[in-house]
Amino acid sequence: MKNKNSQGAQECPSRCPDNSAFKQQKLPAWKPKLTAPSVLSSFFTIGVFCLLMGICIILSARSVKEIQINYSDICLSCSKLRENSSNWDKECNCSVHFTLQENMLGDVFMYYRLQNFYQNHRRYALSRSDAQLLGQDVNIENSNCAPFTTYPNGTPMAPCGAIANSMFNDSIQLSYHLNSYTAIQVPWLKSGNSWWSDKNVKFRNPTSYNLSSAFAGTTRPPYWQKPAYLLDEEDERNNGYINDDFIIWMRVSAFPTFRNLYRRLHHTNQFADGLPAGNYTFHITYNFPVTRLKGKKQVVLSTITWSGGSNLFLGIAYTVSGAVTVLAGFIITAIHLKLRKKKTYFQR
Amino acid sequence: MTQGCRGGGARVGEGTLLPPYTPLPRCRSLALSRPSSPTKVQPCQSLKCSFQDNAIRTAKYNVLTFLPLNLYEQFHRLANLYFLFVILLQVRSHWRSGGDCWAFGPLVAGRAPHSEAVRWRGGGRGGLVGKVSLRPFLFRLLLKADLLLLSSSEPSSLCYVETSAPMIQTLLTVGLPGKVTCEEPNSRMHSFIGTLEWRGEKYSLDSEKILLRGCRIRNTETCYGLVIYAGLDSKIMKNCGKIKMKKTKLDRLMDRLVIVIFVMLVIISFCLAFAAGFWAVKFRAEHSYLSALYVGTSPAEQAFFAFWGFMILLSIIIPMSMYITFEFIYMVNSCFIDWDVEMYYPAKDTPAKARSTSLNDQLGQIEYIFSDKTGTLTQNIMTFKKCCINGMIYGTSEWNHLEILPVSWNPYADRTAEFHDPSLLEAILQNEDPVMREFLRLLALCHTVMVEEKDTGQLVYQAASPDEEALVTAARNLGYVFLSRTQDTITLSELGTERTYSMLAMLDFNSVRKRMSILVRDPEGKIRLYTKGADVVILERLREDGPTKAFTQLALDSFAEETLRTLCLASKEVKEEDYAEWSEKHHKASVLLQNRAQELDKVYEEIEQDLQLLGATAIEDKLQDRVPETIELLKKGNIKVWVLTGDKQETAVNIGFACRLLSDDMQILEEKEIWASAPRPWGVAGLRPSHVSLLCRQEKILGTGTKVKRKEGFWARLACCKARTQPVADSSVEKAFVDLATVCQAVICCRVTPKQKALVVQLVKRHRSAITLAIGDGANDVNMIKTADIGVGISGQEGMQAVQCSDYALAQFCFLQRLLLVHGRWSYLRICKFLRYFFYKTFAGMMVQIWFAFYSGFTAQPLYEGWFLALYNVFYTAYPVLSMGLMEQDVSAEKSLQFPELYRVGQRDELFNYRVFCVTLLHGTVTSLGSFYIALWAFEDSGSGRVGGDYQSFAVTVATSAFLSFWTILSFLTIASSLVFFCLFSFLTQNFLVFREAPTIFRFPSKALGQTPDLSDWCLHPRANPPECSLPSGAVMLLSLAPLQQIRSRDLRVAESTVELKSHFHRGSLQRRSSYAFSHKEGYADLITRGASLRVKDSRIRGLAEAERNGDGWG
């Protein structure tokens, strides 16, 4: 702009400003003329589109099969036991039976759902050391992990911080009752549940010849029952900091009620197409205390469709706004028909 | 020089008649040293005088003071204090909560440097003068200091200057060392008291001998002066007033809004912190995974920290980037003013110039315009337009260029003159009508013009008033050429024959007599009296009421209707014996020591009787281009135009009619009428009534009675008020004046000094809290320009002083309509829309934080990540608002001028005020609620393949919808670029590589990328929000269109009805025909008859004069 100005000045010695469209504020512009036909047609178009959209989403959301079981209420004894933190080393198992009325076809996901758990607490959410989780050898005393940094004897925690410390540590298994006598374990995939970027960039294990030596000199957080390098003893690539359960937990949730992906169905044998209808039992090792914080734990089995999960809200929102828009269209039509004859001064 | 010396000496000798000089308590003295050469007089260098040097610095800052002064001024803006506070908060890292990469520079680097650069440049021009103190001034040179005139090259060492009221400065000549004692510098333009000690004698000095800075010397080749006051001491600079930082109405509103928002912020933060305290108790007791975080702090402490946490978190509600964008928009809008081709004046090669970049929006809110007359409304050029000779009107016919008679018959004709009427020329050349002859003779004889013959043989007339010059030039073009004058003769060339009249007496002009006459003996020996003057005065002194008189009156009516300045011409033959008798009386009267003036007037009156009417002349005071149209348009836009002029009442009224400020159907309220109703308060008013005469034209609405009666009641009330409480009186009188003046359609203030001009502006500003604009061209308008909210300088005419103090410089008055109605309106619209949109955007974006606090245990957890916050206002959302602030046009420029009524929107502050702000707040809140809860519910339990519902992707979605939910059409591109920027910066700040480098700064790698495989989330959820948020508001906007149109049509009906009412009453133009307008000053005849002003170097004339004097001794 400046450049152009000076050029213009060189061309003609006079101080006459350039007669360019920009400088004269005459750039071609499209001004929407809010005439009744255009406004009304846009209202009806948008309204109808939203209605259709909403209906489609609702239909697709309803095709999602989902089952939610609140096991913190069912496993009352375990809940009671965990209320007292001194019982932390006592194991508590719990089984929950349920019947699947219909087949759950396609991808089936298992989630755990927590209620009233404040992962979004400001200081809680800050309480982590990204450098440590990257496998770097850092002094966690200087990180945000406090007060979960070191034990009184000076041993650092690995991983440090309040998030890691409070990691969800129930283990859930599902068995399928082929008949009243035989039950088979439903196969689940433990890994591949987290984001690629988390798994491969944000979380790295410290390098050493083996994992336990990499974690030497550190110890588990106080709430954990086993150290980080024993999170998944079966799979080397799912152990330590790059354990999927851990990664998912470390991605803190926005609201006190949330669900995290726990397992994906492994499509083998009977479960090649999904979960067949029938009787099932959840076998839960109950470790995670929620009763004192008036929280609840649920386990969720769900399929997905193109529109997401079973949440109807989006569809309803579309439908309602579509309906409102169409209604508004009618109202405006009425007003327009009433006022049409008056011509205003400015239409001269 | 020697000649001048003697003349000057004589003048000073006479000066002893003036009241004796009384020493002033504080005075300064200047010494004159013996000049090294007769032409050079220098102030003594050895005198230790602490006087101002002549450099005037109009720049606000210098290198040293820039930073502290500018900072001080910047912190006058409350928002800047606020930002400082927020920055200090942020620095305390303990409470910091992300979003910490804020720009700090803009605080100082805002608009100030730009506008200062302009001022610097301007200042350079102003201060150019340096030491010109006593160099010979060139023809038409602009004076740069107050000078005591010592001598000039002109006869009798006169010096002509050109100001709004041209005058001659009489002189005083000094050739030897002397000493001047004068008063301290002051602001009184029209008075000067001092003494000169020279050769042991004391001479008093008064304002007549002073040339003031800013005057333009005219028709004077050289003059010498002693610098009395220089630089800031000069009278005009003392009258200038101070440079004040001008703040716009919106600025002040913004300041208050900043307070409102800040209070809101504190209250909200306090409430949230209070809740945080409660939640801290709960977290500590129940949430075992959190309780460790609370060890060692009490809930009150937690609440305290939460308070500051929320303060920081929500402080972005007043974004610093808004102010930066704000300044940028102001700047570009100013550039648009500079660039406007339609405000470019090719004749002088001057474009419009916005010298201040921060007042544009106020151009759209002007309610009162205060205009100077001379040089602003008029060109200060008088042209002889028409005349009526013996009842015949000439000059009306549509003359054709081809028909112009060859002027070769008249070698003296001034070819630039515009008056050509072939029929008149024909009649003159026939030379049959004696009345016509007398008429033209009168024009050539009865005046005080002085003539100079240039080397080329061209005649140059030097007149004290442009009117006279026009008349004499007209006579010259019509064949009656004024060739020369001596002390008591006048030589004319009448159609080629040279005739010399001996001048017997000159009956001078003054404002009471409103006429001047000359008594001459023609070459045939007959004595004739020629009189010209105002029609009322002349018509009542006629011998008989003939048909000529009736015709002439008709002609005068028609002239007056065309708002020409009229003069009546009459003559008579005086018998020798009558003359002898009168001459004796005259002589007696003229030597009287007391009441000389009155006695002379009486004597003059005696002879100016039984006149024979010759005709009338009509002179046009040329208006600038398109002035009437502009004023009419501005009036339609509900802008009131006041004219403040130093001129006389008649002249001002005449111009008022000419530029359609006044019309025949208006009632004129003159000073006397105002006086009559309330004489006492006026005596103590801040504006002295003797100087300010007000002409208020009150619109007549349905009969005269009601309005006038109401006014009387009003004054009565005022008088009571005054009687009771003395101290309040002054302000109440002022208020009464403003109340009265503001109900008037137009106000013209005459005979006002620069300071009074500023006072009037101040008065309206104070009592009406309206936005005022002052427009002027001369140094005498500077104070007014500085006082008004917006000062506009007309560049080019009377130097650059007005322009240098102005905020906008235009070349012509008529550009004002485009400046106000187009640029002003647009700027106001843009700034208001911008503010509204920006506030909406920040509210919509940041209120979400408040709602989120309810779900995060009131722990001041930021919903957005730091980078997002930092870039939100700069990259993600800046372009749509910017384009709105730069390009928005609701109607085109042509339509803006076609419907000036649209301007009222700005005057009523309709586009941005507290109400609009509240609506915006509400709108933003609704949007934020919508975008928050839609996202919340949509994500709740969404069983997507990957980790759904984590707060980072939620934040992105909310953000996306927040800035998508307000579409503007013009900004389509910019919105697109915002989206691109959003993706780009999301990618950059969330890049893995960046994360690896600095994991603590870039916390969220691949949030956006991680979503891409999850098509359903990415596509559906953000898309759902905009229609949800924008459709309701769109519908509301549409629904509100209907009432809006009704309001507009109501406006129109009001406007139309006033127009109708106006035409009920029509005032005959006869009543204002006395618009005798003649910018003449008395005192010149005296000079001429004494011969003081005659040029002696012209030997031909001198010889002739001497011969005649010796010959008959009439003098």
UniProtKB/TrEMBL annotation, chain A:
Subcellular localization, as worded in the UniProt entry: Membrane
UniProt keywords (A-Z) are: Glycoprotein, Membrane, Transmembrane, Transmembrane helix
Q: What is its main location?
A: membrane
Q: Extract the InterPro entries matched here.
A: CDC50/LEM3_fam (IPR005045)
Residues in the signal sequence: none
Keyword Transmembrane (UniProt): yes
Q: Which GO cellular component does the record give, naming just one? A: plasma membrane
User: What are the BP-aspect GO terms?
Assistant: phospholipid translocation
The UniProt similarity line reads: Belongs to the CDC50/LEM3 family.
**What is the designated name of this protein?**
Cell cycle control protein
TrEMBL record, chain B:
Report the principal subcellular site: membrane
Task: Give me the Gene Ontology terms describing cellular component.
Answer: acrosomal membrane; endoplasmic reticulum membrane; plasma membrane; trans-Golgi network
P-type ATPase C-terminal domain ranges (all copies): 803-1002
Q: Keywords on this record? A: ATP-binding, Coiled coil, Cytoplasmic vesicle, Endoplasmic reticulum, Lipid transport, Magnesium, Membrane, Metal-binding, Nucleotide-binding, Translocase, Transmembrane, Transmembrane helix, Transport
**Source organism, top-level taxon:** Eukaryota
Q: Which residues bind ATP?
A: D372, K373, T374, E468, F509, K532, R565, T645, G646, D647, R751, K757, N780, D781
Q: Does the keyword Magnesium apply?
A: yes
Where it sits in the cell: the answer is: Cytoplasmic vesicle, Secretory vesicle, Acrosome membrane; Endoplasmic reticulum membrane; Membrane
Coiled-coil regions, chain positions: 590-617
Which regions span the lipid bilayer? Answer: 257-281, 303-324, 834-854, 866-887, 914-939, 959-988
| Gene3D superfamilies in alphabetical order | Calcium-transporting ATPase, cytoplasmic domain N, HAD superfamily/HAD-like
| Membrane-topology annotation of the record | Multi-pass membrane protein
Q: What family does the Swiss-Prot or TrEMBL record give for this protein?
A: Belongs to the cation transport ATPase (P-type) (TC 3.A.3) family. Type IV subfamily.
Name of the protein: Phospholipid-transporting ATPase
Q: What is the lineage of its organism?
A: Eukaryota, Metazoa, Chordata, Craniata, Vertebrata
